[in-house]
Write a structure and sequence with these properties.
The protein is an alpha+beta fold. It has one domain. The protein has 3 helices and 4 strands. The chain has helices spanning 12-16, 34-37, 67-76, and strands at residues 23-30, 49-55, 60-64, 80-84. Strands 3-2-1-4 form a 4-stranded mixed sheet, covered by helices on one side. The longest helix is centred in the last third of the chain and has 10 residues, at 67-76. The termini are far apart. InterPro entries: DUF1150.
């Protein structure tokens, strides 16, 4: 029995918008990384563990020190969440 291969090509634009408005990802980060992802955030002292929620395309949505808050915000925005390790 042979396996059938299905080749589906996505354009860069299609790939960039995959999951838009449907999926968000949660990532633990250090305060030293904040300015890279959240350029408008105020300066935060070093060595603090934080949690961030991002849209599927990488757009930052929320930065918090409380992991649960990221899930509540995702639910409020009707996003399915995935966690990056």
């Amino acid at each position: 029995m042979g396996l059938k291969t299905i080749n589906t090509l996505l354009s860069k634009n299609d790939l960039a918008h995959l999951g838009a408005g449907e999926v968000g990802y949660i990532r633990k980060m250090r305060s030293e990384e904040v300015s890279r992802c959240f350029p408008e955030a105020p300066e935060i002292g070093p060595g603090i563990d934080l949690w961030a929620l991002f849209a599927a395309d990488g757009t930052p949505i929320l930065l918090t020190d409380n992991r649960s808050s990221t899930f509540f915000k995702a639910a409020e925005d009707e996003l399915r969440t995935v966690t990056l390790h």
